[in-house]
Amino acid sequence: MTSSPNNDSTKIAEKNAESTTDIALVTKTDENINNDSNIVLQVETVETPENEFEDNSKVPHLSYWKIFVLFLDFGIHAWGGPVAQIALIKERLVTKQQWITHARFNRVYGVYQILPGPEATELCMFFGFLAGRGRLGGLLGGLGFIIPGFILILLFSFIYVKVGLDNIYFNASFRALQPIVAAMVLRAVHKIGEHSFISHKNKKFNYWLFGLAILSAIQTALNLNFLITLGVCGIAFMFIDRKLYWFGLLVFVLEFIGFGIYVGLKKGIPSPTSIGIGVAKETDPGHIFALGLLAGSLSFGGAYTTIPFLQVEAVSIGNWMAKQVFLDAIAIGQILPSPLVMFSTFIGYYGGYVFGGHGWAFLEALLITIGIFTPCFFFTIMGHHILEKLIRNKFLAAFFDGITGSVVGIIAVTALDLLKFSVTNVAILKNLSSDKQTLVAAQHSSVAAVLYVLALAALYSFKKSHVPLLLVIFGAIAGQFLFVVTNDDI
After folding, report:
1. CA 421, CA 373: separation in Å to the nearest integer?
2. 66 confidence band (pLDDT: 50, 70, 90)
3. I need a labelling partner for 281 at 20 to 30 A (CA). Which of 3, 95, 170, 288 fits?
C-alpha cells in the first residue's frame, strides 16, 4: 500500500522532532545543580534508523553478576554530582560502546526527567534492564549504582553521631558548611527552575509554570500543606495546558475559598507544622520507612525537591532532628560518590539512633533508603514502554509539569529559611556566658554571611561539576580557623 504524502511528511516531522541534536543534559534539574559545560555542551548529528527506538542489537547480553559489577563501578566513580554521573554513563555506554543511539538516550532521559527519582539511578536500571533482558537486570543495575554511596554515607553517619555531636572541632567544620550548603540549595532553585518552567509541548518558557512556582511559594509561606499545594497546581495546569483557563482558575478559586474558611474557623493562618502530614512524628522503623516513601514519591525534579519534605517532617513536625544536623546531612551527601538523595540515609540513621541507639540506626538507615528509592525502582522496572505511554498522555504529562513547576516555589521558601538559620545559628555557643555569647554570635553570623555570599558567587561563576565538592572541603578546613570555640572562650 502506498502512503499518502501527508502521512509521510508527518512521520518525517516526528522523527526530526525526536531528534538528533544531543543537548539533553543542558536542561537537567536536580539534579542539574552541578552543571559542567565541558561535559554536556556537545552537538552531534546522528542518522536515525527506522527502528532506532526499539533496536537492542548492540546491547551485550550480560550475566546478572556482570551487570551488578558494571554498575557497581559506575557507583564507585559517581563523583561530581548528578550531571557528572549521567555524563559518565552516557560516555561509556552510548558514545563508546554504542549500546543505543544518542537520540534514543535523549528520549529515555526525557522520560525520567518527568518522573520522581534520581535520573542517574534510573538510567542505570534502564541499561541493566536491556543487558539482562528483563526486570532482574534492571534491579541489579540500580542496586550496583547506589550501594557504594549507601555504605559510605552509613559510615559517615556512624562517625558523625559517634564523634561529632560534642566535638568542638567537628562542630566547627560543620558550622562553616551550613551557609555553604544553604547557598547550594538557593542555587538549586535557579537550576531546577531552568528546566521546570519549560513546556514539554513546545520546549519554550511557560509563564504559567513560573506563576505556579510563585503561588506555591506564597502558599508555603502561609503554611498551607504541601500535598494540597502540589495537587492543586497539578490539576489546575491540566486545564491551563489545554487552554481551559477558566477551569484552571476555578480550581485556584475553590482552594482560596477553602483556605479562607479554614482561617475563619481557626482564627488565624495554619501553624508551621501544617505544611507536612506528620508521617514521622515518631522515629520507629515504620514511620522512618514511610518518611522515605513519601519523599521518594515527591522527588519531581531531582534530589533537592526532597529537602523541604524531609525537613518539615523530621525537623518541624517530628522535632527529633535539629536544623543544623539536617544541614550537616546535606553536606555529607555532597562530598560522597552517590546520588544526592542518599543524604536521606543519614536522616534515617539519626532517627534510628534517637529511637534506640546504633543498632536501630543501621536498620532505619536501610529502611529510609529503601523507601526513598522504591518509587524510582517501581517506575523503571515496570518497563520503559509503559512509562512512555504514561508520559505521552497529555493530561498526565501536564499534571506532572504542574507539580514540577510548583515544587520550585516550595524549595525557594526552604532555601530562604535555611539561609536565615545558617547565618544566625548559635548552637555551638551554648556553653558560653550570655555576655560572651552575644559578641561571639555576632562575629559568627558575620563570617557565615560572608561564606554564604562567597559560596553563591563560586556556584554561579564556575560551572565545573566538582565545585560543590571543593566548596565543602574548603568549608570544612575554614571552620577550624573560624568557628572553633575552646574552653578559653567560655
Report:
1. 29
2. very high
3. 170
